[in-house]
Amino acid sequence: MKYVDEKGRLFGIINVIDFIALFFFICLVPPLMYFGYKIIIIQQPESLGDRVKDVYLNCEMVKLKPDVATKMSVYDRELNAQGAVIGQIMELGEIEPYEKYASLKQRQALLKLRIEFRGSDLFYKGDLVDAYSELLFKTKKYTAVVIINEELTRMIRVKITLKDLNADVTALIKIGDKETDAEGKTIAEIVMVGTPTESFREFELNRGNFTIGKIVGKQQINIEMILKCQELSGEIYFKGKPLTYNLPIEFVTNKYKVKGFLSKPYENMKSNNPNDSSGNFQSEKDEERLK
Q1: Which terminal Cβ of the chain has fewer Cβ within 10 Å, N or C?
Q2: How far apart are CA 131 and CA 52, in angstroms?
Q3: How far is Cα 56 from Cα 237, in angstroms, rounded to an integer?
Q4: Are the C-beta atoms of residues 276 and 159 closer than 8 Å to each other?
Q5: pTM for the complete prediction?
Q6: In the prediction, which pLDDT does 268 show?
Q7: CA dist list (Å): 228 to 52, 203, 257
């Protein structure tokens, strides 16, 4: 039996050249599918959710044995049980003697850590994160103690407009009202209360214009609050949410639960206190109020 007939067809069915082209095409399909999967699926940005954020923190790697200090390099990574990167060295300083033990070393570092919001606090692998916190950074090559060099928690005094309130709720809002976390610590407190007015909203028009409409039967009230916030990579967060004009701020006490927004310039009430510095980072007096 002839494999190729007089017309150049393999087994009398397909042209030899066409067969070779088809064979190479079939061979290329698996690698093309593999690399396509890598590009489309694996390299897609990882969705972290609202409660988790990758942040850059200035740290100090301390209590290092000399061989560990030498092994360290930029892009060393810590992985979780699923193999995802949760910590990475982005910048690394020179090896220095550790100030407490002459036989050990330390190195300055900029770390990218996957931080989790829990209530009003921050955590890395279940450990509390704030200024001078000690964490463990574990790679396949070594384990290092990390000290956070940045102050992340801030007490911020801001002006907020509580909106869409029923009159009976408005009557309950007083100076000194507080929200506490699961441990009973104050995370928000009202320090000034304005006069209730009819509630109104902005309605967006075209080309960036807006108009203001009143909400019949509802009230709003301007207040000033001290909030326990976190400053991460230049952004301010309260209870895990960015502090911006467009996102509501929820305030929960043992008497009521309300929502408001950072006050717009035309909503700000005037203070009779000439020393008032609302909206700025406050002094120790405000920090003591929330302790």
Answers
A1: N
A2: 19
A3: 15
A4: no
A5: 0.67
A6: 56
A7: 18, 31, 18
